[in-house]
Every structure is written in C-alpha cells, then in structure tokens.
Amino acid sequence: MGDAAEEDLYAVLGAGPSDSAQQLRHRYQRLALQYHPDRHAGSSSAEAESGMKRFLEVDAAWRVLGDQTTRRQYDLQRRAQELKQDWPVDSVVHLQDMIWEQNERVYTHGCRCGGGFHVSEEEVQEVTRSRRQDGDEEEEAETGEREHGGGGGGVVVCCDTCSLAVCVTR
C-alpha cells in the first residue's frame, strides 16, 4: 500500500471517502468493464496499453478500498498526510460535544458550511495512547489548548466539504 498512498485511490475510482462500500463496488465494476483488456483486443496497441494500465490502476484501487480493514488503514494514512499540511485550526471541539455514530464508528460534528468533521475511534485512541507514552498528558493538553487553540492536545480534523479544520480534544 506504500505506492497507493501517493495516489488518491478514491479519485482512481471516481469516488470519495464518504462513499459506501456498495457505491465503491459499483464504480469499480463499471470501470473494470470499461477498461477490461478483452474490450480493447481489437484496438491499436497504444489504446490497448492505455486501457490495460487504467484497468490495473482501477484493480489496485479496488484491492485496497474494497476491503474494510485495508480501506480503514488507507483512510488513516490519507488523514495523516493531510495533517502534515499546515492548515490553520478554526476552533477547538471537545469529544463529548461530538455525536457518536455507532454504525459508522466515528464521532461527528457539524461545520458552519453544512459539511461535517469526522474522527474515528482509532484516531482518538492513537492520540490518547501517544500522549500517555509521553507521560505528560494533562500538561500537554492544557498548554496545547492555551497556546495553539487546542492543537497540542488533540486531533486536527478537516471538514469534509470546506477547508476549515478543528482540533478535537478529550
């Protein structure tokens, strides 16, 4: 999955991270039929090669996104990459102020644009675990919230619609 993290696998399927597994499957099947090598058997070698390359990209994307476990890992890698970008944090949201979506296994909070902020249980646990390992959970949470608007003691989450980001703290 190392190379796949560099390319947006959702874009390969013409999908988005919020698409359901069924929607992803439908997009994969449509693209796989469109670019399948048997469809391009009579085409020029350049067309056939281009179709084969696209088919392999679609297939590789589906192998990651079609499995719930590997999709979750890929989403976490994408989120980590997004967090490396230097986006300003708009506000601090406390975890207890978010809504727990049992079916999706994520905490959600509405954005002023109408979109939403989503943070998984695993992301929250990972931040909590790493802060405990550092041994200064309370101090880091307090100073981080004061100095950075919450950045030091939580998870930075981007809106799924606009460019706003919030820091989710415990």
Helix content: 40-55%
Poorly predicted regions: 136-152
Question: Approximately how much beta-strand content do the residues carry?
Answer: 15-25%
Helices and strands: which structural class?
alpha+beta
How many strand units? 6
Rg over alpha carbons: 20 Å
Distance between the termini: 31 Å
- List the total number of helices: 7
Main sheet: strand order: 1-6-5
Q: What integer is the average pLDDT?
A: 80
Principal-axes shape call: elongated
Major sheet: 3 strands, mixed
List SSEs in N-to-C order. Answer: HHHHHEEEEHHEE
Short description:
The protein is an alpha+beta fold. The chain has helices at residues 2-6, 9-12, 21-35, 45-65, 68-84, 121-134, 137-148; strands at 91-94, 99-101, 106-110, 116-120, 154-158, 165-169.
Describe this structure in words.
The protein has 170 residues and is an alpha+beta fold. It has helices at 2-6, 9-12, 21-35, 45-65, 68-84, 121-134, 137-148, and strands at residues 91-94, 99-101, 106-110, 116-120, 154-158, 165-169. Strands 1-6-5 form a three-stranded mixed β-sheet. It has a three-stranded antiparallel β-sheet with strand order 2-3-4. Strand 3 and strand 4 form a beta hairpin. Helix 3 (21-35) runs antiparallel to helix 4. The protein starts with a helix and ends with a strand. Residues 136-152 have low confidence and may be disordered.
Task: Summarize the SSE layout with pairings.
Elements: H1 2-6, H2 9-12, H3 21-35, H4 45-65, H5 68-84, E1 91-94, E2 99-101, E3 106-110, E4 116-120, H6 121-134, H7 137-148, E5 154-158, E6 165-169
Parallel strand pairs: 1-6
Antiparallel strand pairs: 2-3, 3-4, 5-6
